[in-house]
Write a structure and sequence with these properties.
The chain contains six helices and three strands. By secondary structure, it is α+β, with helices and mostly antiparallel strands. About 25% of the residues are buried.
Length: about 180
C-alpha cells in the first residue's frame, strides 16, 4: 500500500506490486480496505502482476501486517488459491523494498506539486509506470544487507527505514509551501 496522500478533505490510496523485474499493476483503493476488497486486489492485481513480471504461478507474495491482509477471509482465499506468502515480521518497513519505491514516488510528487486529486493520481501513475528497473534491482539486491542490519540492530530501526514512516507521510497538493 502507498501512503495516503491528503488533499483538502480527501486523499488517494494505491496498491502496487514490484519485483526485481520492475513495477507492475498499480490499483487505486477506494474507501477503506477490508478483507473482501483486498481479495479483489489479490485476484485482479497481485496475481496478474506476477504473470506480467514473468513469474507465472511460481512466485512468493509479500504483504505487510495490515489488518485487512490478515483477516480469516483473506487467509482462506490465499490457501485456496495456493498463494505462497513470505512470513514477515510486522511493522518492519526497513525490510520491505517496496517502501523505497513509495519513497521515490513521494519525492517525485513533491517535485511535480499536483494541484488536485486527479493530477495527484495521474502523477502517481506516471511515476509508477516509468519507474526505473535499475532501482528495483538495487532495492532487491539490498535485501541481504537489510536483513543483516536488522539482526545487528536487534530488531530496532536501521538506515534502510530512511528515518521516515511512509505510512503516515503526507504530500500536500494545495499549499505552495507545505
Amino acid at each position: 500500500m502507498a501512503p495516503t496522500v491528503k488533499y483538502g478533505g480527501g486523499g488517494i490510496m494505491m496498491w502496487g506490486a514490484m519485483s526485481y523485474n520492475g513495477t507492475a499493476f498499480l490499483t487505486k483503493v477506494n474507501g477503506n480496505l477490508n478483507g473482501a476488497g483486498y481479495i479483489n486486489i489479490l485476484k485482479n492485481s497481485a496475481v496478474p502482476s506476477a504473470h506480467l513480471l514473468g513469474f507465472g504461478d511460481n512466485f512468493w507474495f509479500h504483504d505487510d501486517g495490515a489488518p485487512c491482509h490478515r483477516s480469516q477471509l483473506v487467509a482462506k482465499w490465499k490457501a485456496e488459491n495456493n498463494l505462497r506468502c513470505l512470513s514477515w515480521p510486522p511493522q518492519s518497513p526497513d525490510l520491505n523494498p517496496i517502501e523505497n519505491v513509495w519513497w521515490d514516488v513521494k519525492l517525485g510528487l513533491k517535485q511535480l506539486r499536483p494541484r488536485n486529486l486527479q493530477e495527484l493520481e495521474d502523477n502517481v501513475c506516471n511515476i509508477w509506470n516509468n519507474f526505473p528497473i535499475r532501482k528495483c534491482h538495487s532495492y532487491i539486491r539490498s535485501m541481504p544487507r537489510r536483513v543483516q542490519a536488522v539482526i545487528d540492530a536487534r530488531g530496532r530501526y536501521t538506515k534502510y527505514l530512511m528515518g521516515q514512516n511512509l505510512r503516515s507521510s503526507t504530500v500536500c497538493v494545495t499549499e505552495p509551501n507545505c
